[in-house]
Specification:
With 252 residues, the protein is an alpha+beta fold. Helix content is 38%, strand content 16%. Strand 6, helix 9 and strand 7 form a beta-alpha-beta unit. The relative contact order is 0.06. The structure holds zinc ion. The site of zinc ion has 8 residues, from helix 3.
């Protein structure tokens, strides 16, 4: 009699309701179900009994855990030129396969929650945030919407000798944002406020941003153009270079 048949008769291997072959871990006695990729056929399961193979948890016992290893050293050891994939590229077929692989599948609620929490936690770490912002900064895919009126206004001023660049990127380690127009040479900032900037909530946001921009760029002038009533406001009071909190009076 073959070893497989003997194992079946002895009840050492059996098929569960799904038709997968199972055995018990010789160490913890837990049921191990053969799944695609690992132990699948009755021959495999039978062979793993002869070899005395343990379950995934029992294999790890007594071995160093990932967290106990020197992660930094490991990271350096396989980074850059030492990385096995250094200089290599995935083929288009592989990329296509990878894209299709998870298409249409959905994560369950718990996994989503876990992911969300871990991303949020990570983004609070200064080093992660810095990396993220630098990546965004370098991304050529990032497109920023421009207002039609914003571009017209800037070109009007540029005809007068200014050199406003639309959507000028300002970035710190903690944040990345755009000013609607920046003239590097004259060091002048122009913000174009469309209708929604008049909401109280948005105004507060704008003021906070404005102060950050002033702190970073140290502009000579910071102009806000209110597109609703067509008025300009100078936001830097010359005495203390702080954001002027007085909002320009409405015309009419
Ligand atoms: Zn076990």
């Amino acid at each position: 009699m073959s070893k497989v048949s003997q194992h079946i008769i002895d009840g050492l291997i059996w098929q569960n309701a799904d038709g997968n072959w199972c055995k018990k871990c010789p160490s913890c006695n837990r049921e191990i179900v053969g799944k695609d990729g690992s132990v699948t056929t009755k021959f495999n399961v039978s062979h793993s009994i002869i070899k005395g193979k343990l379950c995934h948890s029992c294999i790890k016992v007594g071995k160093p855990t990932w967290s106990s290893l020197n992660r930094e050293e490991f990271g350096q050891r396989i980074s850059g030129k030492n990385h096995p994939f250094y200089g290599k590229h995935h083929t288009n077929e592989f990329k296509e396969w990878q894209r299709n692989r998870r298409m249409g599948t959905q994560l369950n609620g718990e996994t989503k929650k876990k992911l969300s929490v871990s991303v949020k936690n990570a983004m609070h770490r200064p080093d992660v945030r810095k990396k993220h912002i630098e990546a965004l900064h370098q991304s050529k895919w990032l497109k920023v919407r421009t207002d039609k009126g914003q571009l017209e206004l800037l070109s009007k001023w540029n005809n007068l000798g200014f050199k406003f660049e639309p959507n000028y990127q300002v970035h710190t380690d903690k944040a990345l944002f755009y000013v609607d127009g920046y003239d590097k040479e004259h060091n002048v900032v122009m913000e174009y406020d469309s209708k929604y900037h008049n909401k109280t909530h948005q105004k507060q946001k704008d003021l906070a941003r404005q102060q950050i921009v002033i702190d970073i760029l140290q502009p000579k002038k910071f102009w806000r153009y209110d597109s609703v009533n067509g008025s300009f406001m100078e936001c830097i009071s010359q005495k203390n270079k702080k954001t002027a909190t007085v909002v320009a009076e409405r015309k009419g």
